[in-house]
Amino acid sequence: MPGKVYLIGAGPGDPGLITEKGRRVIAKADVIVYDYLANPRFLALTREDAEKIYVGKKGGDHTLSQEGINQLLVEKAKEGKTVARLKGGDPFLFGRGGEEAEVLVEHGIPFEIVPGVTSAIAAPAYAGIPVTHREHTSTFTMVTGHEDPTKEDSAIDWEALARIGTIAFLMGMKNLPRICENLLRHGKPEDTPVAVVRWGTTPRQKVVVGNLGNIVAKVEEAKLGPPSIILVGEVVKLREKLNWFETKPLFGKRIVVTRTRAQASQLVESLEECGAECLEIPTIKIVPPDSFEPLEQAIEQIETYDWLIFTSVNGVQVFFERLFARGKDARALANTKVAAIGVATAELIKKYGLLVDLLPQEFRAEGLLEALLKEELAGKKVLIPRALEAREILPEKLREAGAEVEVVPAYQTILPEEEATRLKKELEQGVDVITFTSSSTAKNLLKMLGDEARSLLSEVVLASIGPITTETLKKAGFTPQVEAKEYTIPGLVKAILEYFRA
């Protein structure tokens, strides 16, 4: 039986503008076929075993011809696979989705269309330009600007087009002089406002505003190229009043997030909400320990422990997975007190049906230790499921207080060496900030950069989640310019915002 192909509109660039259905299909697909304009962040939604195939088209440079793409979709579907074909914008708006669908019909391949937000409307919206407005125009049209300028007879009715209130040209940057010339020749006034929006809806967005008489010169001066939307009409005048996206506090800042991809979402979403472009380049990878036997032995006798201490969300996840696998649940902890470092760790514990008994005000080992030492610990049995390698201050001080402490590895962190090349490439292209949410992320990033660390980080703002991570960076010879006052993700974002406001 053949598989199925989904032709998905991936939206204009902002990853938040893809539809919910599009996300669901990407998450379940066996094969992802994506192009130049589909945000690479969508690949993080895929299954680990999904096949990812890039077929991008950029300025006439085709990785795979359209015929080749058509054949690829057919071949993968005939293998019985679910294929997600990601196309920038909407698949049926100048996206050749109709051609791909026709080929699928010819070969008897089931398919679905998942519409997407088109850049013809979204890019102007992010530039503060509504394509229609009661006081300016009630007509709007979209035109391909990609028509061959050497054609003797244009397929575009320029006389009719010149009477439309707002016109959006897609893929028209090479033909901008000809577009302006034709509109002027067919009756559009020379002072008709024009906006050119490059990389609309992304933190790389750049807008040039002029009119039909001077926009070509202005675009050349600004060195604007594709991918861009050309918008013609009186509504362009509203940009000065309605520009909202480019006023965000971190607009245009490129920020590297070094957390694992599984944990990066809150930080990425918060930074993007402030206008930043986030580059997810994990410098740590969470993997199982060499053996779960010590943890499982502890779980078998979990009822005998007086205290269970969690120092990270990773430890919480692994502990409860192994607890449930052993046929136990939260009731096994009825007589055990639970302590946690940090709000995020405590919130995750709550999702497993438990409220923490102890949450320090200072979210680090020293803060938890200060709170625990106020308890009667002599003779108490304490279990700490944590990373294989971690600071020893907590178990050491608890033992000094008379507690019987057992530390068991729940996971270990390793260096994702495959990310090193990409990290160096992004730093060479220009990065404004690197965020560090633990000492491990800092140590590993410096290992990944090696001897090039000093030169590659010389112009980059280093942002630390707290004093322990800061100390790790300082010992390596790098003093972070930003340190969170509250050692949490919201605290780190707040500190970055305060730094740039200052």
UniProtKB/TrEMBL annotation:
Residues 4-215 form the Tetrapyrrole methylase domain. GO terms for molecular function: uroporphyrin-III C-methyltransferase activity; uroporphyrinogen-III synthase activity. GO terms for biological process: cobalamin biosynthetic process; methylation; siroheme biosynthetic process. Residues 266-493 form the Tetrapyrrole biosynthesis uroporphyrinogen III synthase domain. CDD domains: HemD (cd06578), SUMT (cd11642). Coiled coil: none annotated. Pathway: Cofactor biosynthesis; adenosylcobalamin biosynthesis; precorrin-2 from uroporphyrinogen III: step 1/1; Porphyrin-containing compound metabolism; siroheme biosynthesis; precorrin-2 from uroporphyrinogen III: step 1/1. NCBIfam families: cobA_cysG_Cterm, PRK06136.1. Pfam families: HEM4, TP_methylase. Keywords: Cobalamin biosynthesis, Methyltransferase, Porphyrin biosynthesis, S-adenosyl-L-methionine, Transferase. Belongs to the precorrin methyltransferase family. Its EC number is 2.1.1.107. It comes from Thermodesulfatator indicus (strain DSM 15286 / JCM 11887 / CIR29812). This is uroporphyrinogen-III C-methyltransferase. It comes from the Bacteria.
